[in-house]
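Folding problem:
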Amino acid sequence: MFKMGDSTLALKDLCLEAGLLDLDFVGCRFTWSINRAGNKRVSARLDRVYVNGDWISKYSSARVHHLLKLASDHRPIMLDINENCKPFRSKKKLFSSFIG
């Protein structure tokens, strides 16, 4: 498992001072892993989403999903704000508002 170094602790302190929160996640605990010599696996949660209090009050049910790792040593992450999104407007309507 990854051990926190000075830079990791400094980032945590900076986020705390700035009022940023590490958003909850769903899925595997770690977002990065690598095999070292002797079958020693090193894993860590490197990829995160930080938000402030205003943002979390607007999107209180938002979650980060740690997705399946495919071709990289990182798992992709997806931010789901759990909102009912309106469908996209057609390109024709979107551009007609700019053309006149």
